[in-house]
Amino acid sequence: MNTADAKRVLETALICSHQPIQPRELRVLFEDALGIDTIKTLLEELQLEWTPRGVELVQVASGWRFQSRPEMREFLDRLNPEKPPKYTRAAMETLAIIAYRQPVTRGDLEDIRGVTINSLVLKQLEDRGWVEVIGHRETVGRPALFATTRQFLDDLGLASLDQLPVYDTAQAQANAFAQLSDQEDDSQLSLDEVASENDNTQTPHDD
Fold it and tell me: Whole-angstrom Cα distance, residue 161 to residue 189?
């Protein structure tokens, strides 16, 4: 199979998939005849080929997927005028603390925010698949440790936590996540849009 045909197979599989796919899973398309490095190279070439279009190929935590570009959102929203449920500022600020300081306990969250955390806020974030309990702190009462999930990264279009925008202060982090609650589609949030409007944003570090 030549390169053009291989890319067409990958393109078709990713467009038809409802979930991101890892390169190692894509090998089955070629009966393992292509190595992971070759598939990654083909995906990167496809990514460039789709650059001028309204749909982009991106790598997120769970693998590779096609998605609409952020600037297309206002047009796509016209097809689905029903608004998804909004998340409160308290919920998004709590999510920001977990994202940037994980793992954290409920007590940590309350110390940082300076207010009591409603159990429903954490449950809402867990139900959405953005937060999960990954263990317990070895201290009195063994409180649960909360961290973000792959689903959280996927919904932000990120491959890893290292790609989270860097802000000067914890308040700037909280404000950025709070602004996410104003975005219409919570299945494809964009911190890039928030960061571009936030004067406190720094250039992300390359780790």
Answer: 15
Q: What is the pLDDT of residues 57-74, one digit of tens each?
A: 999 999 999 999 988 888
Query: What DSSP state is assigned to residue 116?
Result: P
Topology adopted by domain 3-68? Arc Repressor Mutant, subunit A (1.10.10)
pLDDT digits 0-9 by tens, 145-177: 999 999 999 888 888 999 888 887 777 877 777
Tokens of 50: 């789709």
Q: Domain coordinates of the chain in residue numbers?
A: 3-68, 89-202
Same fold, 3-68 and 89-202: yes
Fold observed for domain 89-202: Arc Repressor Mutant, subunit A (1.10.10)
**Nearest to residue 9, comparing CAs of 28, 24, 22?**
28
What is the C-alpha separation between 126 and 186, in angstroms, rounded? 14
What are the residues facing 176 on neighbouring strands?
none
Q: Which CA distances in Å does 149 have to 25, 80, 132, 146?
A: 20, 27, 7, 10
Structure tokens at 127: 């139900």
Residue in the block written with tokens 């720094």:
202
Compute the distance between CA of residue 25 and CA of residue 10 in angstroms, rounded to an integer.
11
Cα 11 to Cα 39, 48, 50, 70, 160: the distances in Å are: 11, 13, 10, 20, 23
Provide the 3-class DSSP secondary structure of residue 55: strand
Global pTM?
Answer: 0.71
